Amino acid sequence: MKFQKPIRILAVDDNLVNQFLIRSIILKLYPKAEIITADTGEESIEIFRKSSNFDLILMDLQLPGISGYEASKKIKKLVQGKPTPIVALSASKMEDMISKGKPAGIDDFLSKPILPETTRKILIKYIFDK
């Protein structure tokens, strides 16, 4: 599939290896993607506050300080206009993520470790199938 549309993704994870993996997978799938990273929930909120024109947010749920759940809630409250989809990243059980994530405004879930095929499906679902 050829993706022509430019995309911006906010990737939030406190682990630099995970940030590198996310960036590598997305850029391999879509070399023109712009990926902004944040290490904490607080930082993700501040980045979104300054520039909310992201096509997708990938949010680790286990972050120092403000959790990914809380950061997602706060980001959803900042949204003006087109809502930005938030996809949670976690090694936890899917049932736990869904029960806590939906009320926090999380739109979907990806289990860690992040894999190219599941990442591609998320990009298609939330960015390219619109």
Automatic annotation (TrEMBL):
GO molecular function: kinase activity
Single GO BP term: phosphorelay signal transduction system
Pfam families attached to this UniProt entry: Response_reg
SUPFAM superfamilies noted in UniProt: CheY-like
UniProt xrefs under Gene3D superfamilies: 3.40.50.2300
CDD domains the record matches: REC_hyHK_CKI1_RcsC-like
Keywords: Kinase, Phosphoprotein, Transferase
Keyword flag Transferase: yes
Chain ranges of the Response regulatory domain: 8-127
InterPro entries: CheY-like_superfamily, Sig_transdc_resp-reg_receiver
Residues recorded with modification 4-aspartylphosphate: D60
Record's protein name: Two-component system sensor histidine kinase/response regulator hybrid
